[in-house]
Design a protein that fits this description.
Layout (H helix, E strand, L loop, with lengths): L1 E6 L7 H8 L5 E4 L8 E5 L2 E5 L12 E4 L4 E2 L1 H13 L6 E5 L3 E2 L2 H14 L11 H9 L12 H23 L6 H15 L3 E2 L1 H10 L4 E8 L19 H8 L6 E9 L2 E3 L8 E2 L1 H10 L15 E3 L1 E2 H11 L3 E5 L9 E10 L2 E3 L5 H4 L3 E8 L16 H14 L3 E5 L7 E3 L2
Parallel strand pairs: 1-10, 1-11, 2-5, 2-10, 5-7, 6-8, 7-9, 11-16, 15-17, 16-20
Antiparallel strand pairs: 3-4, 12-14, 13-14, 17-18, 17-19, 20-21
Helix pairs in contact: 3-4
Bound molecules: guanosine-5'-diphosphate.
């Protein structure tokens, strides 16, 4: 049985916490897209961790953590991450990396930075982890698959070919130092040494696991609105953030994904550029940012302050629909306990018309939020374990949003910890 844990919005919805919680009963956790550009924050018995590449199941002794073929693998970052959790007392996790996953090269990160520099004020707000250059190369068929590390002759040939092409751009577009094929070869052979113990035919491994009735979790990065097809293009990420892509990025049949848990945060936050209709500013935003998440809404990778906003029903309904949601996990509800009233965005006004369907980017830029204000509950709801024990206004807020988005909220998260979760029938 396969479950996917994915985001409805711009990412940072709390997928890490939900995955970590669900991983208690899972056998295998798979990352299927993205790279080290985003982070999951997880709090458990070992402490507080910001993971970038490892799946959020690495803290359990009974789980296998898998990096699927769809992931952009930054091998030094991955190895450092493995070492860093071991150094903090976590038992050495069982990790498998797909032989069909491709590697983020040092030049991908450089190209990311050079392009942001070239674009100046019009940049995308990239985390400069090399993700866009990586996926561009993958689909241009000049990426390096981990399996290619094991045939040195072919590898050498490809290194020369790739360096020749990259050097044209480096010389004439970016005016930066050129790539040297010998050092690239050295870089790749270094990666082989680091990754060799983890390399696996992951799709075959998962096929066997499915036959044995194992429980598999697919852990998504970012959310629907950052999907290159269905998100706010071009202010998106470079790999699909949808549960459907989980089948491809892990190498399993699509019909095996039986449950799609879409994580929605009780208010909005976003990083990077792009339209954000329900965004708030000034002191109102500062206060929510300071109180948000666990210790404030700041990027897990970059430390950048996140952009803040009220819950957006239009974006979330669309976000849940594209994921194919069976369950909504509604997170960080506890954070809103300080507000007398809570505005919720229930529609967009575009060119004088009210719309409820999430529009393409050019219209989104023109959208103004239509807000409905709900009463707050003015108390701390952390520690509450039963839905009925939540204050009435809190339940009303949850049920109002559930009705607006049209998908069942079956889990309510009221704290950052593994067990701060309320299940609803
Ligand atoms: P992800 O990338 O979707 O996993 O999200 P992040 O880890 O970037 O952001 C979620 C943040 O909210 C983390 O700091 C979590 O510890 C925290 N968090 C998750 N669920 C809850 C919750 O229900 N309440 C509170 N207060 N914090 C939460």
């Amino acid at each position: 049985m396969v479950k996917a844990v994915v985001g409805a919005n711009w990412g940072d919805e709390g997928k890490g916490k939900i995955t970590d919680m669900l991983a208690e009963k899972a056998d295998i956790i798979v990352r299927f897209q993205g790279g080290a550009n985003a982070g999951h924050t997880i709090i458990n018995d070992y402490g507080k961790f910001a993971l970038h590449t490892l799946p959020s199941g690495v803290f359990y002794g009974h789980t296998t953590s898998i990096i699927g073929n769809g992931v952009a693998v930054d091998i030094p970052v991955l190895c450092k991450e493995i070492q860093s959790i071991i150094d903090r007392g976590v038992p050495a996790p069982k990790i498998l990396v797909s032989d069909r996953a491709q590697m983020v090269m040092s030049y991908h990160k450089n190209f990311d930075a050079y392009e942001e520099e070239r674009l100046g004020g019009k940049s995308f707000g990239s985390t400069k982890s090399g993700i866009a250059p990586f996926y561009s190369d993958k689909y241009a068929k000049i990426g390096f698959q981990i399996s290619e590390l094991f045939d040195e002759e072919l590898l050498r040939e490809k290194v020369n070919r790739v360096a020749e092409q990259k050097n044209v751009l480096l010389e004439h577009l970016y005016h930066k130092p050129l790539l040297d094929p010998d050092s690239l070869m050295e870089e790749l052979l270094g990666y082989r040494k680091m990754i060799e113990p983890y390399v696996c035919n992951v799709s075959l491994y998962l096929d066997q696991a499915l036959k044995e009735g194992k429980e598999i979790l697919l852990e998504g990065q970012l959310g629907t609105l950052k999907d290159p097809d269905h998100g706010i293009y071009p202010m998106v990420t470079s790999s699909s953030t949808l549960a459907a892509y989980g089948a491809i990025g892990a190498g399993i049949p699509p019909y095996e994904i039986k449950q799609i848990v879409t994580v929605c945060k009780a208010y909005s936050s976003a990083v990077g550029a792009g339209a954000f209709v329900s965004e708030i500013f000034g002191a109102e935003a500062d206060e929510l940012r300071r109180r948000g998440g666990d210790g404030g809404e700041f990027g897990a990778t970059t430390g950048r302050p996140r952009r803040m906003g009220w819950f957006d029903c239009v974006a979330s309904r669309y976000g849940c629909r594209l994921q194919g949601t069976t369950d909504v996990a509604f997170t960080v509800v506890d954070v809103l306990g300080y507000l007398d009233e809570i505005p919720v965005c229930t529609g967009y006004e575009i060119n004088g018309e009210i719309v409820k369907e999430f529009p393409p980017t050019y219209l989104l830029e023109k959208a103004k939020p239509v807000l409905t204000t709900l009463p707050g509950w003015k108390c701390d709801i952390r520690g509450i374990q039963k839905y009925e024990d939540l204050p009435e206004n809190c339940r009303n807020y949850i049920e109002f949003i559930e009705k607006e988005i049209g998908y069942p909220i079956t889990m309510v998260s009221n704290g950052p910890g593994r067990h701060d979760i309320i299940f609803r029938k």
